[in-house]
Every structure is written in structure tokens, then in C-alpha cells.
Amino acid sequence: MNPVIVIPSYWTDAEYLPALGEIGVYDHATPITKPMPELEICLSSLEKVRGVLRVIVLLVAPRACRDGARARVESICRQHPSLGVMIVGDPEAQAICRAVEHIAPTLQQEALSLRGYGAIRNMGLAVAATLGHDVVVFLDDDEVVEDEDFLIKAVYGLGNSNRQGLPIMAKTGYFVLRDGSPYADESRPRWCDRYWSKRSEFNEWMRHALGGTRICRSNVLCGGCFAVAADAYTRVAFDPAITRGEDLDYLFNLRMNGIDVWFDGDWCVKHMPPKTPSHAARFLQDAYRWTYEVAKLDQCNRTIGLRQVRPSALMPYPARWISEDVLDRIRRTALRRAITCKEHFAYFYVWASGCRQARDWALQMNDSYLAFQTYWPRVMAMLWDNELLADKLVRMGTPPALPGREA
User: Fold this and answer.
1) What's the predicted TM-score (pTM) here?
2) Do 292 and 284 touch, CB atoms closer than 8 A?
3) How crowded is the C-beta side of 33, counted as CA atoms within 13 Å?
4) How far apart are CA 299 and CA 373, in angstroms?
5) C-beta separation of 191 from 333 below 8 A
6) Structure confidence by residue, pLDDT tens digits, 56-112
7) How far, in Å, CA of 249 to CA of 368, rounded?
8) CA within 20 to 30 Å of 4's CA: 171, 216, 340, 346, which one?
9) Helix, strand, or coil here: 202?
């Protein structure tokens, strides 16, 4: 196999509270002036991993600090020459988009870009296909790899079939927290989060998955510990419309196209996320996310040729989050948080207007993924192992060597 590790890395020029509903705001953007950024820690942990052939860093930054972020990321990546790091920033992304325009001129650039969680993941898949990698291993920059066999475990079972003869083309591991536990804190949720906590149902599923065989069919997908074979990622794309949770949404996309995600109980990473800048902005993104998922799955379940994805098949988690009652729980949680949390006015806005706007947007966008997905296999076929484009991307994306380290 020829695996590549893909790491989306989000950067900003200041530590600020994002505006409510602002597009292009990500949970954990790293300030370019941060003394020890998460990407440096992540890449350092990969130094001891066996079998690393190439690492692709997807550089996501607002226009105002794009040059500064590029310089900072290059300075970090050149410290790790053994990893074969390649940076994909705006110039490299534009090269991919220009190539795609020839076969899909009507495809919106937002579907394959460095803006929006799903589109960023699609860019990682597009670059991997161009370079001819038959396995993509996604890792987040706020994670630490502690197992030298991380990559060996990542590709374990891929391309084979289980005892029932079902092919394994996509698999997920899981992350452990700073205390080493894979489980969420199950202490009694706050009054304002009574309708929004999913910890107990998530833990119920995790106990079942970790208590059985090493490989089992998965109801979850950890985007920072995920491996997908070319047979799957060249057929199915991430949804560029999703506001958050593009990893779990990809599980739905794969499943509706007849591909299961498998859970590997021996494969994990340590998750060390920084502080969330604005919980209200994140909640609004979640409101759009779950409202959209309900509308999208309803549309896809009525589409001939796709396998149905029903809540009953995703018990105990995430069934409640793709059911109609999630819309009522969004409103109740927004009102309760408006009463008790610091960001009162932001939560009140979500309750008064945000829920309705999310619903209208979801009904407008519910079939957008199906339209985009029809292009994806053609796009991947054109990009696959494209030597001319691959050489160009490698030249553009390879950080300059440190003095004294030139070949």
C-alpha cells in the first residue's frame, strides 16, 4: 500500500471571538504568533511512526494572514524533513481547481477548496488522488500520535473482507482524552444542556465497540483517526455544505452509497484540543448541521439507487441527532442557554431567528450533495495519478530546505 497522512491545519492572525454565523470560522484555529502551535506537536509525534511516506498539510487561513500563516507553517514543516511534508495552500488548491474546471466546468469551487470543513477534506482527497495514493489517513493537528505502529494499524484490514465477506474500504479509530480515557464525561449535564448532551449514548456505543472484536461495523467516524481506501474515496465525496461534523456526515454518505465504515478498537490517537473561542458560534453551526442532516437524509432516503440511512440503524448513537425531534431540542437548548450562559444575546438570537433560518437553509440545500456527488467519480478519475499535475504540486508545496540540509 501507498498511504498518505493528510492533516487539515487552521490558522488565524488573532485570538478573537468569531462573529455568530460567520462563514469560514473553525473550532480550533491556531494564532500565527503562538509559541508552540498544535501542528508542531503533531508533526513531532509522527517522527517516531514507522512507514510514513508523505504528509500533506492542508493550510487554511483567512486572506488577511495567508502569507504569514504560510511562512509559519513552512518553518514548522522544514523542521521535519524525514516526514516528506507537502503543504497545500491557496496556490496549490488553485492548481487543482483549474484542472477540475476542464471536466466539470459547472462545479462550484466551494465544493473543492480550502474553505469549509467538507470542501477542505475533499481537497485532501483530490491531492492524494493526484499523487496516486491508494490510502488516505486523516489526522487532526491538535492530536498526538503515541504509537509507533500508528500507520500499520491504520491500513490493517483495508482492502480485505471480514468473516461475512463484506469489504473493508473505510475504517475509523478513536481518540483518547488527556487522561487517557476514550469515554466522555458522564457527570450530570447542566440544566441548560439537558436536551443537548449526547455523552451517555456515545459512551454506550463505545463500550459496545471496545468490548467486542477488534473490527466491527461503526456508527461513528473520528475524522482525526480515519483511513479510507481509494476504492471508496474516489467514489464518495465529503459534503461541502456541512457546517460542522463533516466526518460523521461522511459515514452517512458512504453508507448511502453501499460502503460501511468499520471501527478498529486497537487504533487511537490522543486528542488535545485548545479552548473553544465561542460556544454560541459553535452551537449555531451545530443547529445548521443537525437541521441540514435531517433534511438531507430525508431527501436521500427518497432517492432511487441509494441505500437508506435511518435512525433505527444507528442506535444508540447518533440516532437521536438525525431524528425530527432534534429541531425541538435545538430551540429548547438555545432558550435555556440564553437564560443561563454568558453569551446571552447570541443564544437568544439562535432561539428567535437562527433556528428558523437554519430550517429554511436546510430545505433549500437538502439535495445539493446529490448534485455534487454525480461529478465526484469523474473528477477523481481525471486527477488520479496525474503526473504533470503531481510534479507541479510537489514543486509548489515542498517547503524550502534549511541551510545545510539541501540535497
Assistant:
1) 0.94
2) no
3) 3
4) 14
5) no
6) 999 999 988 999 999 999 999 999 999 999 999 999 999 999 999 877 777 776 789
7) 14
8) 216
9) helix
